[in-house]
Amino acid sequence: MKSLLSSIVLWSLFLVGLSATVASGAVLDGTQKDVATYGGIALSLVAGSRIAKKDPIKSFLSSRPVLWFLFLFNGVVAAAAGLALDGVQGITAAAGMGLVSLGAGFGLLQSRGTRTRTRGTRNRGTESRGMRSRGTEKNRGPQALETQGRRTPTPA
Question: Are 107 and 67 a contacting pair, CB within 8 Å?
């Protein structure tokens, strides 16, 4: 129940932040409009980053197809924004989209490194047989009875 309530609150804050960012220009003028816009941006960024750390969204965003889409799409949009928009608006749009593209690219490189590391350990010792080792070599103590490659520990 606590998780459901926190999810509802986070999504509500995220939507309120997006609404304040988009709709403040139609309702407010001058300094109030700027404050509402920047406040909405900050609120949606904080709530959105908290939402992205929760498990269903986190696993979706870290999947390879989504990372490839984010990398390619945002890279193309960053290049197009740099060419199509003039001045500060074009620079900030290209920089923002480029940062998202770079983040997805680093995520692809990181997941690639993790995948090759797990492939290398699959064929070693107890990992390939579905067993887990009991601690590190330093803190095994009496649990050192387990030998690598065997399913049952050897008695003392």
Answer: yes
